[in-house]
Here is the input.
Amino acid sequence: MAVSYKELGLVNTRDMFAKAVTGGFAVPAFNFNNLEQMQAIIQACTEVESPVILQVSKGARKYANQTLLRYLAQGAVEFSKEINKGKNIPIALNLDHGDSYELCVDCVESGFSNIMIDGSHLPYDENIALTKKVVEYCHARDVTVEGELGVLAGVEDEVSAEHHTYTQPDEVVDFTKRTGVDSLAISIGTSHGAYKFKPGQKAEIRLDILKEIEKRIPGFCIVMHGSSSVPQDLVKIINANGGKLSDAIGISEEQISLAVKSAVCKVNIDSDGRLAMTAAIRKHFNEHPEHFDPRQYLTPARDCLKELYKHKCVNVLKSAGHAWD
Ligand code: G3H
Ligand code: 13P
Ligand code: ZN
Here is the structure.
């Protein structure tokens, strides 16, 4: 049976983005696939009073079961209330990289409040047609929509691209007007995963392109995917405890903060969370080879995640304290 996100206590992204644009911060969009990730996100964001976007990818739906994820998101609202004496932070539930109209409809019907339709791999006019169709369906239900222009290098779900195709600033006015999207994901040199740059390569994103885009659509919410920083202390812990991550490099937190000061008001982070959990679990098993109760190793994993998310909200995205602006 179809359910509206409003019945679950979730919100769409309209208000949080409007506040982020004027307030000079970005709303964190953290991916989750299981209970512990959701708990860490909600504990961290509630404690620092940040709005948050819980993100579910197609892969997450397959891994965890879409019905369970929707109930976890509903539980997230109650959990936040419990932590914060009855008042929950604003929580949106987003489909990350939706790749078909049918998937978007399915997610809206199961309580998602924001939908990303990623037509970035399609020819321009086909991207517009698909995105517009999703926007019409979603807006009729007060669900907000994110579109994407430009292609990030690396793997996005099953589609992979060897090189970045940067967003062309000249296309953004036409795209946003013709589709009616509420936010726009752009390609300026970020990419998914833990290997964003080759060793020796200049690890910089194209803030100049971001500036050009901002000039064309002032006040419009820009989204940055692939924004993990791949903290080297976590990589070191992983490798010191039996892991093998060589040359894992992310986007520096300084660069992310500069983008946030500009027009970026939603920042997608997944890989850093994966690294935090892996580091804590590897270290735990090295120190306690006799443990076998998942609660023993998932507790430090969840704590490590929570600290990472708090740090992102307070120091990088500056969203802390903006839950109820
Ligand atoms: O866009 C990529 C996100 O990190 C989700 O990754 O498709 O492996 O769940 P996933
Ligand atoms: P990272 O792989 O850099 O965390 O990016 C996640 C993302 O963009 C999810 O859509
Ligand atoms: Zn992404």
User: Anything to note?
Assistant: Residues 31, 57, 59-60, 96-97, 156-157, 192, 270 surround glyceraldehyde-3-phosphate (ligand 1) (CB under 6 Å). The longest helix spans residues 294-316.
